[in-house]
Specification:
Helix content is about 0%, strand content about 50%. With about 600 residues, the chain is mostly beta strands. Strand 41 and strand 42 (about 595-605) form a beta hairpin. It folds into six domains: about 20-75, no CATH class; about 85-155, Immunoglobulin-like (Sandwich), CATH 2.60.40; about 160-235, Immunoglobulin-like (Sandwich); about 245-330, Sandwich (Immunoglobulin-like), CATH 2.60.40; about 345-510, Sandwich (Immunoglobulin-like), CATH 2.60.40; about 520-605, Immunoglobulin-like, CATH 2.60.40. The protein has one helix and 42 strands. The strands form twelve sheets. Strands 26, 29, 31, 32, 34 and 35 form a six-stranded mixed sheet that branches. The protein has a four-stranded mixed sheet with strand order 7-11-10-9, with no helix packed on it. Strands 13-17-16-15 form a four-stranded mixed sheet, with no helix packed on it.
Length: about 600
């Protein structure tokens, strides 16, 4: 039939095949980045897409669709720059050499929240009066990336030394004048060298007899030329006045020369007749045939004056001390003080055998618990160093004895005040040490020295105790060359001496014992060696009071082979211990009382 028709069809080209790629941040720990390749267009499915672990570099990936069409994509994997934040690093500043701040604690945090380790270092640049300190904090993350912060301190020295100015004081019997060359000045400063200069300006009050005031200026200069100063005020002694100016009586004023206590200034409202001065040794010297209303009188001995009698006007009856107006100076009218007793009860085992105190050397021997040697006097001056040597005596075994020495510096009848315990130590042999006479020591009086030797603990100064002995001596202090402060020293033997500078109460003193407060000593073990077949041996034990103790025999490995609780009487005890059947070898015998333990050796054969 020849019929026909038309059909139209469109053949479309697929969408263009396109590939793309992305990468996660480079991980410095694994050394990898995850690259993801994807495709659009073309005809799915695709090959070449997916995830790839790659290191640092540039990568090209080819993607093929179902029709064999291809395309490619490229990506570069880079290491990201470190992102570390330092927290708390201080800014640069200028500081004084005595006010350099402490380096602060600096922290650091990474961009992913990691706590970063921070290392601090400090370098001093230069020296002298002006220099720098460079402080550096370095923060390093786990990948080795780091950042740092720096602070520069400009250090300068523009301030003078800080002086600990000596306290003001008034010259009197207990506070003698301290000359310039004996003054000790304390200070703090950055410089290595500080020069101290001292000058006195003396101002006198009105009238012939007056208080003198000394303004002592102390100046300190450091290496950088900075200076500072302070002023100490030293007042002269009080003006003493007796009598009244009417009829035959006369008003008399007297003051001891603060720089020379052997001299006095005297003034009277009427004509002087005579002046009698008595020095510390009791020598009375009379100045007679006087005229005028004033005078300056010095005792020819050169020693301090402790009493004065002055006559003037028509008050002339009698002669010498006991007549005229009396002035008591520097303790001249002070009577002796009394002390509480202290003694040992039993001196069978030990006693004080010999005492050396400065120039005193007394071989006392056994005094039955107490020896009074108060008439044995050592003369000293403030600042003098007094040596002490103490020797025990024993009837047999040498025991560990506890020594104390006190001096009643303020002359108040006890030994419980500051710095009055001047020595303590313990041992089985002679002990030695020294102490320095303090500036505050009472002058011109018999100051008691108490020496105590006690077994079983340190004694209090007014204690009666079971074993040991006490001896008393005397120190007489006169004004002389001065050294500031009281220094107290003791044995140089390890563990056998303790400097004491602080006052203790009575309760603290009697409880301060070196061996637990009871005393415990082991004597002979016999027989030693002992036979295992007949293992009874004797042990000598000495203890300070009646109590129970545990006696153990232990191996060298610490294993107890026998243990027994025994009651001991105060003093010497002999006890028997049985180790029959114990294996041959070396052992330790332990005696235990509370926290106290003594040990001796035993051999079993």
């Amino acid at each position: 039939n020849g019929c026909s028709t038309d059909v139209t069809i469109t053949v479309d080209e697929p969408t263009v095949l396109t590939a793309s790629s992305t990468a996660t941040p480079y991980n410095c720990v694994t050394g990898l980045s995850t690259v993801t390749v994807s495709a659009t267009g073309g005809t799915a499915p695709y090959t070449g897409t997916g995830a790839y672990n790659e290191g640092i570099g540039t990568y090209t990936y080819t993607v093929t669709d179902a029709n064999g069409c291809t395309t490619s994509t490229s990506i570069t994997v880079n290491e990201l720059p470190a992102s570390i934040t330092i927290v708390g690093a201080p800014a640069d500043e200028t500081v004084e050499c005595n006010a350099i701040p402490t380096a602060p604690a600096v922290t650091a945090v990474g961009s992913n929240g990691e706590n970063i380790n921070v290392v601090f270092s400090e370098t001093v640049l230069g020296s002298g009066c002006n220099y720098q300190i460079e402080r550096t904090w370095v923060a390093t993350d786990s990948c080795g990336n780091f950042v740092e912060a720096t602070q520069m301190l400009d250090v300068q020295d523009t301030e003078g030394p800080v002086i600990a100015c000596p306290a003001d004081y008034t010259i009197d019997c207990n506070n003698p004048f301290i000359p310039i060359d004996s003054v000790v000045v304390s200070y703090t400063d950055c410089s290595n060298n500080v020069t101290v200069s001292i000058s006195d300006s003396i101002v006198s009050g009105s009238g012939y007899v007056s208080q003198q005031v000394i303004y002592r200026t102390i100046t300190a200069t450091d290496d950088c030329g900075n200076t500072s100063s302070c002023v100490q005020v030293i007042s002269g002694g009080d003006v003493l006045t007796e009598g009244e100016c009417k009829k035959c009586d006369s008003e008399i004023s007297l003051v001891v020369d603060p720089f020379n206590p052997s001299c006095v200034y005297v003034t009277s409202c009427k004509n002087l007749s005579n002046v009698v001065l008595k020095d510390i040794n009791g020598w009375e010297y009379k100045f007679d045939g006087l005229s005028g209303y004033t005078g300056y009188f010095c005792h020819p001995s050169g020693l301090p004056v402790v009493d004065a009698w002055v006559k003037s006007g028509c008050y002339k009856s009698g002669d010498g001390p006991g007549y005229g107006h009396h002035f008591s100076l520097c303790g001249g009218s002070t009577g002796p003080v009394s002390y509480e007793a202290s003694a040992g009860v039993n001196t069978y085992y030990e006693w004080i055998d010999q005492v050396s105190l400065g120039g005193i050397n007394n071989q006392s021997g056994n005094d039955g618990g107490y020896g009074d040697y108060s008439t044995v006097v050592e003369g000293v001056s403030p600042g003098d160093v007094v040596s002490v040597q103490l020797t025990p005596g024993f009837s047999g075994t040498a025991y560990d004895e506890n020594w104390r020495v006190w001096v009643d510096w303020n002359y108040d009848g006890d030994f419980l005040d500051q710095d009055e315990l001047v020595y303590e130590g313990h041992g089985t042999t002679s002990k030695s040490g020294n102490f320095t006479v303090p500036q505050f020591a009472t002058l011109n009086s018999d100051l008691k020295v108490r020496i105590s030797m006690k077994w079983g603990g340190y004694s209090a100064p007014n204690e009666s105790f079971q074993y040991g002995e006490v001896e008393d001596y005397t120190i007489y202090v006169v004004s002389g060359s001065q050294n500031m402060g009281a220094q107290i020293t003791s044995d140089n033997h390890k563990g056998e001496g303790t400097p004491r500078n602080n006052v203790k109460s009575y309760e603290e003193v009697i409880n301060d014992v070196s061996v637990g407060g009871i005393g415990l000593e082991l004597g002979d073990v016999y027989p030693n060696p002992v036979l295992t077949s007949n293992g009874v041996f004797s042990l000598d034990i000495r203890i300070g009071h009646k109590t129970d103790v545990e006696v153990r025999v232990v191996s060298l490995l610490g294993e107890a082979v026998t243990s027994e609780v025994m009651q001991l009487e105060s003093g010497a005890n002999k006890r028997q211990i049985d180790v029959t059947g114990v294996a041959r070898g070396s052992y330790l015998v332990e005696v235990i009382s509370g926290n106290l333990k003594k040990t001796t050796k035993l051999v079993v054969q």
